[in-house]
Amino acid sequence: MRSVPSVVAPWVRTRLRAAPGAAPALALLVALTSCLAGALPRAVDRYEDAGLRHSLGQAGPERTTVRATASIPEYGESGEDPDVSFSPEAVERRFGKLLPVVDGSVSVDRAQSAYGTTTDDGSPALEPWLPRPTGLPAEVTLVAQSGLAGHARVSEGRLPRATGRPDVDEAEAAVSTATAKAMHIKLGSVIHVPRPSGPLSVRITGIVAPRDPAGAYWSTVPLLRTPALERLPEPGPPQTYWHGALLLSPKATLTVLGTGRNAFRYWHFAPDTADGQAHDLDRLRSGVASLESGPDLRRARSLADPELTVSTGLDDVVIAFGRLRSGISPLVGVAASGTATVAAVVLLMAGGLAAERRHAELALLRARGVSLPGLTGRLLAETAVVAVPAGALGLAAALVLLPGARAGHAVAAALAVTLTACAALPVHAALTHRSVRLTGPREDMASVRPSRRRTVAELTLLALAAGAVATLRARGTSAGQLVSLAPVLTGVIAALLLLRLYPPLLRRLARPAGRLRGPVAPLSLARAGRTRASAAMPLLALLTALTTAAFGGSVLVGVAGARDHAALLTVGADARLDSATALPAGLTARVGAVPGVRGVTAAAITYEATPTDGVDSVPLVGVDPPAYAGLTARTGLGAITAKQLKGTDRHQLPAIASPAVARNYGTRQPFSVRLADGSTVTVRITAVRDRTPAAPAGDFLVVDRAGLPSSAARATTLLLTGAHPDAAALRRTAPASATARLLTEERARYADSPLQTGAGHVYTAAVAAGAGFAVLALLLALLRAAPERAALLARLRTMGLTRAQGRRLLVLESLPQALLAAVGGILTGWAAVHVLSPGIDLTTIAVASSQTPGGEAVLRPDPWSLILPALTVVALAVGVAATQAWWTTRRSSVRELRAGDPQ
């Protein structure tokens, strides 16, 4: 008889079919977690790259362009005389040699780069028709720059031509439209430029408009497109004159040399700002340094000119950006590390939940002879079949949703998530089933004693957290990754400490509860005290998430408060109108009718007021005392009362002064103040305030406007209050001579850098993701205990427990750990913010500039960021427990056990 071979179903396929809901849930969790893990580094790359490009754009080509210059060679170059060195072909040839050298260090935008010849100062033009604001003759600079035809659009006439010879008496040039308008130059005008051999007649053959005025071709030397009204550096009345550029043909390089002035050749290499990547910041900084005074400079000199000089402000821009990024990155790392910790806990809990659900099955397999490596390998294969495709799918989603960033860090983060998900179930099973046994020992928090290994691990973490906090307080955000790890370590230590205190605290509460009437209270405390020792994982997740949320919320609130305060110190109110001259009489009423304006306070500010005993001028602010006192109370800037500005002596005005003015002139004796029109007033300082709305950013003297001469009492400033003044309507109402500034616009200006706004968005998203994972950890913990609770209620109902008592039992059982997490989260978040605040300066992330009128932004605990997440945890735990109790008490099995109970 032939034997029939046995057919053995593959392990993985069998197990996936046995639990069809577990595999999709695990896949969804891994895909979401890997997507978030992969998206975080790419989001950071994107906003840092955008911030670098923004910084380069804000600096402008005048600072960022790499300029190489060479003057007239004294003895020629390689046998060439100056005429040959200044020829168009020689200048172009050296540009081609220098381009690879510069492009190797700084990515060059070749379309905006240029070269040519010019002089280092202007030549006086004595034509009488040129404008002379103070009688000084205008000056012109001859420039022969490459690429004029490609970067200019001819508005009138034609582009200039050149013969290429140095000994010409006439030349052709073009001027920009702005130069023609400001200097009264017309098509066909002739400008005579002095030179040793006789004046050079330059005829204007064309007026051109820049195709890209903000591009490096025109903006590296702004004089090419816009004339400058320059001032002589001499004391006395200002002596100004116009200075413009005459654009010669690119072939007229020798014409510039023939002027006899300090001519030089130049090569401008514009950086490609669209290609700026923040992760290459160190390479860019070292490349610029090499060009300015390093190996690249020596190479450039060997190719172009022994006396070649290279200069740029690009290094200053890069250093400033790096300083800003180094201050922001550790703060973003706080949220990232907290979220990563909570996500890791959730993945481990998911594996632990699967291992506990299959505890009996795995124990039976071990009892029947399955080896531990074999069991672990099968579980790893079973998990990898689900987790690996899900992790790849999450990574692909992150790469698609956030293009234009590095993929390496995203792949590493998604791979770490996938490996953690794959290893959670096998490792948990291997640790649980090391020895073969069908029943395990009791493992609740009341019976399990902390081992020596746990004590050593806790002490190690405590030492790490203490060292991180001490280093952070001493070094600030320059401590690097310690800034990111300190709040997380604080949460971990708090979780371990609370787990130590939790069992004895419950035992103390269980004794008086046993004397209460009814079984619910003592039974719920007894059940809470027998919570599994594995409850450390959800408590760790909750405390870490609450600490991160409290820290992150305090950071975001502190950033918003710092921006609000800095904007208020700049504007002084919700909006203001300033004018150098007196405002119209009826303007106050018209401005008060603008939508969104609740109140208008007029002020007369004289900036040229000079105390007779001093040299420096002090802004003198004349106000109406009642209205101004109300304004100071609403804004919180140096609150005063109307009585402090009202005096009985008509010849002596009470004054509110800034601290510096009070120190200089005293508060006991009156002193005279000379106004701009020569009149004087006598004031006596009666109160000192750090700030005042009319002059919030400097020194001041505030007096009653009624006591000033009529010439100084007319309002020059209107201070407006209102939640949302209509900016467009306000500017339409204001006269042309007045400048309108709004608090909302000023606040937005402080956060105009993509580096700051991007960091804020990533921080908020990371905190939200951490909160979501913490909620998931809580749900997994409740799900783990659901079968046991259902069985308990079924047995207790057979012994007479009512439905209402069963619901209260489950709710009260879940309350101790939820309250423990909530209270611990509040205390840990408060402690983390207080302990770490001395080492963290929010100024870099709060305002676009390192200099802010409000001074340093200090991190302080935000009550709502501490309380709201904790209350959410308690509400969620109670809600889930109540829902579970409601559902369990209505199951058919319970009704069968309590057949005599009325439904």
Short description:
The chain is an alpha+beta fold and 903 residues long. The chain is built from 30 helices and 22 strands.
Describe this protein's structure.
The chain is of the alpha+beta class. Strands 1, 2, 3, 4, 5, 6, 7, 8, 9, 10, 11 and 12 form a twelve-stranded mixed sheet that branches. Strands 15-18-19-17-20-16-14-21-13-22 form a ten-stranded mixed sheet. The two termini are 63 Å apart. Helix 2 (22-59) runs parallel beside helix 14, helix 17 runs antiparallel to helix 18 and helix 19 (536-571) packs across helix 25 (743-750). The chain contains 30 helices and 22 strands. Among the domains are: 66-83 and 107-275 and 302-315, no CATH class; 441-555 and 752-903, no CATH class; 581-736, no CATH class.
Cα-to-Cα separation, first versus last residue: 63 Å
Radius of gyration: 38 Å
Counting helices, strands and paired strands, the structural category is alpha+beta
Instruction: Tally the helices.
Output: 30
Mean pLDDT, as a whole number? Answer: 82
Inertia-based shape = flat
* Beta-strand segment tally: 22
Helix content: 40-55%
Unreliable residue runs? 1-9, 892-903
